[in-house]
Amino acid sequence: MRLFKKLFSLKSKLLLLSSSMLLLPLLGYQYVSEMEHFLRAGQEQTMLGTAKAVATALHERPALFDQSAAYQQQVIPTRDLYAYALPVPVKLDGQLNEWASLDKYQQNYNHAHRLAAFSDTQTSSLSFSQKVGQYQQHLYLAISVKDDAVVLRPNNSYAVDKNDYLQISIFKPDTGLQRYIFAANNTSQQNLQTGQWVNAFAVDENNRAELPEKQVQGYWRNTVQGYDLELRLPISWVGAKVGFAIFDVDDVHTRELVGAIGNADELGTILVPSPEIDAIIKGLSYHNSRIWVVDKHGRVLARSGDIQQATSTYQTSNTSAKFLQQMQSLLQPIYDAVLTHPSKNFIDQLKDAVKIDDQALKHALIGKADTAWRLTPDKAAVILSAAHPIYIDGQVLGAVVIEETTHGIRTLRNQSLQNLFNQMVLLLLVGSCIFLLFALRISGRIQNLKKQLGLAVDAQGRILAKVKAENQFDEIGDLSRSVSDLVERLSQYNRYLESMSSRMSHEFKTPIAIIASSLEALKVEQTQLKGNEFFQRAEQGMQRLNSMLAAMTEATRLEQAIQHSHYLAQKEPFDFAAVVQGCVMAHQQTFPNQQFKLIEMPSDYQVIGSPDLIVQMLEKILANAIDFAKPDSEIEIKLVRDKKQLVLTIFNQGPLLPEQMAANLFNSMVSVRDSDSQQTHLGLGLYIARLVSQFHHGQIRAYNQHQPQQGVVIEFVMGLVE
């Protein structure tokens, strides 16, 4: 039973509730963190499965891969080119403004790339840059040549190699090596701002021109630094080995070749994104991811999807209560400021990439499927990539790379945290209300106990009523029962003290009467005892006992009379000032050696009460003032009006009250006189004055005065008749 009570004690309840409230947010956040971890792991497995499915669709299909580009062992940027996808077809006009988006992908050639036949030539200023693009079934080339002396082909000349020209070398297994020369006539030399169409002439090993190649179109435009050339070639040329070279002629008279730069000595490849692979992955992709198909050198063969335009992977419907929805709208500004929301404006460094260098891809190209996480340069998004190898004849010929952002997981995490916080706020509100009610109940019980104590014990410590004990098995209930028991015991003791004076008075009367009569008989019979010292001391002792008995009887009688309302019927209106003046005059006659001074004593201080009791109160106060007054000093009596109250002050010059006695001076049996005083004082005079004050609903107090004269002031305040 004791253990049961302890478990449900007040302290246990508070600790249990507080601990549970603190654990809930931690458990909720831990749950959301674990959920996010599991979702990330699930996203990895899902993307690996998707990458494997796409790679399976491309396994053992060599026709989908460019034989020349895919199977080569090494890729050299200036030799092996990549055709970038163009959004629109290029207008062949010699203006290279349309190629500005490919400036970062251009390949530059200078004297270090001279052909072997001109290896002994001196360093020249000849150089050119090359860009390659692809649109549908055509391949576009933009070549910008820097040449300090542009020599064009003479009009009506059959030779196409006695001037500056571009040579394209193509090797196909079925036709062998073929070379094409692009050269412009000098009709445009008079105006550098105009250009002309140029044809591709197929030439033999001696550069003798044959018929123009109809599948190729080109436009030549002279510039201040040299000339620009735009070409459109058939996409079928991509599957072959291809090389480019610029040949330079500086002297218009001799027309001898002085240099050539390019990659015509070692033919390379042009890799074009595969439309067949692109069609396959578009059918397998979905809107939240981006799929890449790359060759074993990491070059992009096909791409589908856009992770910047991807929507969240996980969408949750808001089916919460209307109250929670309103709370969500109120707290949304806080969520927007604290939580990190997915952004579509992050920097995607692989958006237009033609070659991928990824950790997961590196593992896939050696035959191991893998995943990798990366943070965007602006740290606005986290991207997960999964790569799976593509096998042809048991060899890894490429890989499938799938990318997704964690926007979906982050959105779900934010929604979970918001829902968790909404529920926590609701729980805190409910918990706060419960705690408030619990605190109000505790406070009410304590206030009730305080109220009962206030009603049970008055200002003088008398027990007036009992304290009802509670039946609750907690600390407050224990306190209530302890206080109730304590008040009951104090009540019994108080009743004993209150009845003690009356019992003592009753019991002492007979012995004192016997002793008094015996002393009186001895005094009559034995006349020689009249002057006896011991007989006189016995008589003085009897007188003191009679005085003490009379004082106790008076105090007891007055207290019982007031408590039992014997004086209630005797209350009457009277002039308080007249009573004070009469009492002071009587004391002046009784104590002629003591001076009394009345200050501001007007008439018409009408009060309701008992004049006899007021006289008794004044007698006790004046007697106390006379006892403590300095010799030849005045006792000042002052009566003034303060709004609806009268204030009576009686001041005597003399010793000050001890500070600790000021509050207890009006209690029963309290006296500040010396213990060796010859007079009988039980400390009942001011106690009787307090009883009279309480009977008249007044207040009485004593305090020290230092200026202008030192002494003690007794102040009585009572209400006037309105």
Question: Which of globular, elongated, flat, extended, rod-shaped describes the shape?
Answer: rod-shaped
The first-to-last residue Cα distance is: 63 Å
Quantity of strands, as a count: 25
User: Which band does the percent of strand residues land in?
Assistant: 15-25%
Mean pLDDT: 78
Low-confidence stretches: none
Q: C-alpha Rg, in Å?
A: 59 Å
What class do helices, strands and sheet pairing give? alpha+beta
Biggest pleated-sheet summary = 11 strands, mixed
Level of helix content? 25-40%
Number of helices: 12
Could you characterize the architecture of this molecule?
This protein is α+β, with helices and mostly antiparallel strands and about 725 residues long. Helix content is about 35%, strand content about 25%. It is built from twelve helices and 25 strands. It has helices at about 1-5, 10-60, 65-70, 275-285, 320-340, 360-365, 405-455, 475-525, 535-565, 575-590, 610-630, 685-695, and strands spanning about 80, 85, 105-110, 125-135, 140-145, 165-170, 175-180, 195-205, 210-220, 225-235, 240-250, 255-260, 270, 290-295, 300-305, 370-375, 380-390, 395-405, 570-575, 595-600, 605-610, 635-640, 645-655, 700-705, 710-720. Strand 16 and strand 17 form a beta hairpin. The protein is rod-shaped.
Short description:
With 722 residues, this protein is an alpha+beta fold.
